[in-house]
Design brief:
By secondary structure, this protein is mainly α. The protein contains eight helices and no strands.
Length: about 150
């Protein structure tokens, strides 16, 4: 499979600089790399972005994540492998990604309160930036049909 076109972030001048700045900022937020990778993977699973799911698994493994936990991310509520803080982050991830599926607040107060009980403001900012940036990548890759395992050039 071949992408319909080169990735838009690689076509427009300065796009990659902005993306790199976002990543630099979110990685300074005090959230463990493994958790940011779980957030990235869960967003990509929800959005059905095969390129990002593939990249998310590879990045999570590189960060030290176990196969056991990676296999269970899609069913994190039922799986015994996640801490309460990770569950709070994954609940926030799902709510913030599925904003159109809600009839009330995009992120309900109980989900926000649980996440805020585990993470300080800087950490929440990093998690939210990872959610938003991953949704951004999913929306770049799905229209152009970026294949799993593709390298940006």
């Amino acid at each position: 499979m071949k992408a319909r076109m080169k990735n838009p972030a690689m076509i427009l001048p300065d796009a990659m600089q902005g993306i790199q700045n976002l990543y630099k900022a979110m990685h300074q937020g005090g959230v463990p790399q493994e958790l940011l990778e779980l957030v990235y993977l869960r967003v990509s699973q929800i959005n059905g972005c095969s390129a990002c799911v593939y990249a998310g698994v590879a990045s999570a493994k590189k960060a030290g994540e176990s196969d056991e936990r990676l296999h269970a991310v899609a069913a994190w509520r039922e799986a015994p492998f996640f801490t309460d803080a990770e569950r709070a982050a994954l609940a926030l991830t799902e709510a913030a990604t599925r904003i159109a599926d809600r009839s009330g607040k995009a992120v309900p107060d109980d989900i926000w309160a649980e996440a805020a009980g585990h993470f300080d403001e800087q950490q929440l900012a990093a998690i939210i930036l990872m959610i938003a940036t991953t949704n951004f990548f999913n929306r770049l890759n799905t229209p152009i049909e970026e294949p799993a395992g593709a390298k940006w050039s």
